[in-house]
Amino acid sequence: MKTKCRTLYISIIISIVFFVIFSIFFFLNKYNGNSIFEYIYNISLGLFCSSFVVFLISIAEYRVAKVQLLEKIWNESRTLNHALYDIKPLYIGIDNGLIINYINETIFYGPGKYRRKHDAYDKMYKYFYVTNKEKFKNKSKKEISKYIYSLIDDEIKSVLEKLEKSVDQYIHLNNISFNELNNLLGDVQFFTGKKESLKLYNNIYEPLRNMYNKLKSTIVYYCKCFKDNENGRPDIMLKIILKNQDVLFKVVEFDKDNCSFIDYYASFYDNMEDSLEEFRAKTIYNCKEEKIEHMPILTFCESKNKTTH
Fold this sequence. Notes:
Blueprint: H1 2-31, H2 35-85, H3 96-109, H4 119-131, H5 141-171, H6 179-228, H7 234-244, E1 250-256, E2 259-265, H8 267-284, E3 298-303, E4 306-308
Helix pairs in contact: 1-2, 2-6, 2-8, 3-4, 3-7, 4-5, 5-6, 5-7, 6-7, 6-8
C-alpha cells in the first residue's frame, strides 16, 4: 500500500523536475541556439514523458489500492462489531436482587424453606404466590407449597441456563483480535490524509477498541474465572453481568393492549453500524448513505405481574 503511494509521489516530483528542466532549456535553445541546449531539452522531454506515463498509471493503481484498503478496514470493523451483536442481554423477568439473594442463600444455607436462613426463600415464595394466586383456588396448603417450590426451582434452573449462555457469549470475545485492523490503520493516512484518518480513528476504531477493553475488564475476565472454577459463584457472576451489560444495550419500555413491553436494542452495535455506513458512503464510494432501520433484538411482555418471553 505504502509503495503505491510513494510511487505516485515520486512520479509527480520527477515529472515536475524534468518539465522544469525541459522548459528552461527549450527557451534557452530557442533564443540562443545551441546543440547542447537542444540535446538537454530533448533528453529532459523524453524523461518527462516517461515519468508522466508512470504518474498516470500510478493514479489508477493508487485509486484501486485506496478503495481496497478502505474496504478491508470497513469489513474488519464490521466483523468486530458483529461479534458484539452476538451478545444478547441477560434478562431474568423478576427482581434481579431477589434472584441473586435466593441463589446466594441457597449456596450458603442449602435449598428449601427448612434451611437455617430462609429470608430470600420467603420472599421468592411470596412473589410466586401473589403472581399465581388465581391458580390456588380449592387447593390445600401442601399442594400450594409444593407447586410454588416447583415454580421457584424451574425459575432458578432457567436463570442459571441463561447465565451459562451469557458467560459463553462474553468469553468468545477473548478470541477477537485487533491486530488486522491495527495493521490496516497503519497505511490509511497515506491514502486519505490526516483529517480522514483521524475521523476514522475517532468514530470507528477507538469506540470499538474501548468497548472491547471495557467488556474484557468488567465482564469477560470474571466469566473466564467463573467458567474455570468448578465452585464458581453464580450469584456474583449474575450480579456482574447485570450491572455492566447496559453499555451494550438500550431498554425501551411501553404499554400496549394491557401489557407492559420491554424492548432491548443493541444500541452500541446500532451506533457503530451508522458510523460504518457513513464511512462506506462518504469515504469509500462517495455515494448516498443507506438508511438503517434499527429493530429491537429482544422483546419481553409483562402482563398481570407475570413475565412471559
